[in-house]
C-alpha cells in the first residue's frame, strides 16, 4: 500500500481555495499510484477554532464532491480535515473518501482544553481498511494520549495515522512520544502536519513516519509544502516538493 502525507498550507477560512490546493496534491499522489492521501488537521479551513462555527458543514457538502469523483475515478482514498456540524455542536473531523463507497467522517475524541469552548468530542473510533492494512486515524491532541493508540491496537489496526496542526513545542512532544509507542505496539505511525500560521501559533511541518521499531524513516522540513510517500510493501520513501 502506498500512503501519501500532504504537508499543506491552508488559506484561513477559504474552503474553495483550499479545495483547489488539495486537488493539486491529490494529482501528485495519483501520479505516484498512491492508495491513500491524508491532509493535516482542519486542512480545508485552516486550524481556526474561532471560525469553526461559521465554517462547519458535513460530509455531504456539495463542494466535496470533487474529492469523491477523484477517488472513484483514480481508485485513491482521501482524508481531508474539516469542522463538521451536529445538533449538539461542532466537531473536529476528518472526512474520508474511498472509491465507490459511502463517505465516512472520523471526529476527534479527545480535545485539548483550549478547544473545548469551540468543539465537542467525537465518540467513535473508526478503522479504514485498505488492501491488507487496517488504518486508525487520530487527530492531533488525542494522538499523544496513549489510551487512544491502545484502543486502535485493540481494534486490530496496524497503522496509526495522526493528522495534526502543531507548533514547534508540540512537534517536539510528538518526536519524543511516537517512537516509543510505535515500538511498544509494533505499529507504523504516520504524522502529517501543516505549515504556516494557524489560530495563534505557527505550524512547523516536520511530517514524519516511524516504523514498527520506533525508528524515524522519513521526515519533511519545517517550512515548505511537500509530500511524504511510503510504500508499505517495498518500504520505499519518496519526497515530492512543489512543482
Question: Would you write up a description of this structure?
Answer:
There is one protein chain. This protein is 24% helix and 33% strand. It has 243 residues and is an alpha/beta fold. The protein has a single domain (2-241), classed as Carbon-nitrogen hydrolase (Nitrilase/N-carbamoyl-D-aminoacid amidohydrolase). The strands form three sheets. The protein has a seven-stranded mixed beta sheet with strand order 5-4-3-2-1-14-15. A six-stranded mixed beta sheet has the order 6-7-8-9-12-13, covered by helices on one side. Strand 7, helix 4 and strand 8 form a beta-alpha-beta unit. The radius of gyration is 16 Å and the shape is globular. It starts with a strand and ends with a strand.
Low-confidence stretches: none
Biggest β-sheet: strands ordered side by side in the sheet: 5-4-3-2-1-14-15
Q: What CATH architecture do you see? A: 4-Layer Sandwich
Report the structural category. Answer: alpha/beta
**What is the top-level CATH class?**
Alpha Beta
**Biggest sheet features:** 7 strands, mixed
CATH superfamily: Carbon-nitrogen hydrolase
The SSE order reads EHEHHEEEEEHEHEEEEEEE
| CATH topology title | Nitrilase/N-carbamoyl-D-aminoacid amidohydrolase
Q: Beta-strand percentage? A: 25-35%
Helix percent band = 10-25%
Shape, please? globular
Overall pLDDT level = 97
Terminal Cα span: 25 Å
Quantity of strands, as a count? 15
Amino acid at each position: 500500500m502506498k500512503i501519501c502525507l500532504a504537508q499543506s498550507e491552508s488559506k484561513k477560512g477559504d474552503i474553495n481555495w483550499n479545495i483547489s490546493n488539495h486537488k493539486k496534491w491529490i494529482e501528485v499522489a495519483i501520479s505516484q499510484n498512491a492508495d491513500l492521501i491524508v491532509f493535516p488537521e482542519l486542512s480545508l479551513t485552516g486550524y481556526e477554532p474561532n471560525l469553526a462555527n461559521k465554517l462547519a458543514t458535513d460530509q455531504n457538502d456539495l463542494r466535496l464532491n470533487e474529492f469523491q469523483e477523484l477517488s472513484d475515478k483514480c481508485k485513491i482514498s482521501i482524508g481531508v480535515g474539516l469542522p463538521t456540524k451536529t445538533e449538539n455542536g461542532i466537531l473536529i473531523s476528518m472526512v474520508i473518501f474511498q472509491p465507490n463507497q459511502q463517505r465516512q467522517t472520523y471526529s476527534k475524541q479527545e480535545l485539548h482544553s483550549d478547544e473545548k469552548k469551540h468543539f465537542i468530542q467525537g465518540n467513535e473510533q473508526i478503522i479504514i481498511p485498505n488492501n491488507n492494512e487496517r488504518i486508525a486515524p487520530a487527530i492531533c491532541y488525542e494522538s499523544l494520549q496513549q489510551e487512544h493508540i491502545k484502543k486502535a491496537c485493540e481494534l486490530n489496526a496496524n497503522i496509526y495515522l495522526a493528522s495534526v496542526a502543531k507548533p514547534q513545542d508540540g512537534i517536539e512532544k510528538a518526536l519524543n512520544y511516537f517512537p516509543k509507542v510505535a515500538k511498544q505496539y509494533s505499529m507504523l505511525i504516520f504524522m502529517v502536519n501543516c505549515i504556516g500560521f494557524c489560530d495563534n501559533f505557527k505550524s512547523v511541518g516536520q511530517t514524519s513516519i516511524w516504523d514498527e521499531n520506533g525508528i524515524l524513516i522519513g521526515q519533511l522540513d519545517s517550512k515548505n509544502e511537500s509530500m511524504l510517500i511510503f510504500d508499505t510493501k517495498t518500504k520505499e520513501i519518496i519526497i515530492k516538493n512543489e512543482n
